[in-house]
TrEMBL record:
Residues 179-279 form the Fe2OG dioxygenase domain. It comes from Centaurea solstitialis (yellow star-thistle). GO terms for molecular function: metal ion binding; oxidoreductase activity, acting on paired donors, with incorporation or reduction of molecular oxygen. Transmembrane segments: none annotated. This is Fe2OG dioxygenase domain-containing protein. SUPFAM superfamilies: Clavaminate synthase-like (SSF51197). It comes from the Eukaryota. The keyword Aminoacyl-tRNA synthetase does not apply. The keyword Lipid metabolism does not apply. Keywords: Iron, Metal-binding, Oxidoreductase. InterPro entries: DIOX_N, IPNS-like_FE2OG_OXY, IPNS-like_sf, Oxoglu/Fe-dep_dioxygenase_dom, Plant_2OG-oxidoreductases. Belongs to the iron/ascorbate-dependent oxidoreductase family.
Length: 331
């Protein structure tokens, strides 16, 4: 299976490096009008558990030990020295490794987040030079087990989504059983001006579905609901399930890929692990034919898998023009 090319990123200093010395003020490159983060102003914090296209899954197939082990290894990685983490730094032309995602210009506003992005499944797509080996101990083994558990969970969820749409559950399960799974581990260090920075800017995921686990009880994930930003209150060992743009297109808009972002806080590190789940490269990104009729026209264009990702990659090269990626896919 071909490796998904999701772009590259210009190297920038990590937040942990920035905080290694007393910080009198947050550098201008990180400051922004958070209230203007697309597409509307943030609301006061509220809790959200089971809402629309962003739900928390409890009683899933992933054992608590697998979750705890991966959470522990992820935190241990970010606690390594800057020099040790830089051994796994992103290289020119690649998104994989330790750094920040989609930094395309020297004057671009930066996110208050350090991350390591790794291709996990299929196994042959792994670039092991980016996989920590000696420290943290057994990191590779933990991620191998975790990513396979996440695939099992994703395949089950996709099967239920297909059934709810009246589609062939087996076809969708097989497409995601043989698909790609990328894992992004995030560290959001405390910030002296959290109201003026953003951990991750608002966006909708380009995946089929995305599975997120919080490594602790600190709220940070926000979802746009009814024009307001609401916090998703972490539930111990729950998996947050997010519909991605691929499934919005396939469902012809029945399911929507929600806009979400990450906020930061003043006092403590927050950690999360995100698994992006994609179908096989033979899976075309288009509205399912069973959902199209004279009374229900296709709302989205049809793309091969390669065309879809190329279209996204081309969008990352552009300065922000305010047009969401999903809108470029609509008829």
């Amino acid at each position: 299976m071909a490796t998904l090319n999701l772009g590259s990123s210009i190297p920038v200093p990590s937040i942990k490096e920035l905080l290694s010395q007393p910080l009198a003020a947050v550098p201008l490159r990180y400051l922004r009008d958070v209230s203007g983060d697309y597409p509307t102003a943030a609301a006061s914090p509220a809790t959200l558990h089971f809402r629309n296209m962003y739900d928390q899954l409890i009683g899933h197939e992933v054992c608590d030990e697998s979750l705890k082990d991966m959470h522990k290894k992820s935190q241990e990685f970010f606690e390594l020295s800057s020099e040790d983490k830089k051994r796994y730094a992103q290289k020119p032309g690649s998104l994989e490794g330790y750094g920040q995602a989609f930094v395309i210009s020297e004057d671009q506003k930066l996110e208050w987040c350090d991350m390591i992005f790794l291709k996990a499944i299929p196994v042959h797509t792994r670039t092991l030079e980016f996989w920590p080996q000696e420290q943290p101990q057994n990191f590779r083994e933990a991620l191998h087990a975790y990513s396979h558990d996440m695939r099992k969970t994703a395949v089950s969820i996709i099967g239920f989504i297909a059934m709810a749409l009246g589609l062939d559950s087996k076809e969708f399960r097989e497409a995601f059983e043989g698909g790609s799974y990328d894992v992004r581990m995030n560290c959001y260090p405390p910030c002296p001006e959290p109201e003026r920075v953003i951990g991750i800017t608002s966006h909708a995921d380009i995946s089929g579905i995305t599975l997120l686990t919080d490594c602790g009880d600190i709220p940070g994930l926000q979802v746009l609901k009814d024009g307001q930003w609401v916090f998703v209150e972490p539930i111990t060992n729950a998996i947050v399930v997010n519909i991605g743009i691929i499934m919005e297109v396939v469902s012809n808009g029945v399911y929507k890929a929600p806009y979400h972002r990450a906020a930061v806080n003043r006092h403590k590190d927050r950690f999360s692990i995100v698994t992006f789940c994609y179908p096989t490269k033979e899976f075309d990104i288009k509205p399912a034919k069973e959902l199209i009729s004279s009374d229900s026209l296709a709302l989205y264009k049809s793309f091969t898998n390669e065309e879809y990702f190329q279209s996204f990659y081309e969008r990352t090269k552009l300065s922000d023009d305010g047009v969401p990626f999903i809108d470029t896919l609509k008829i």
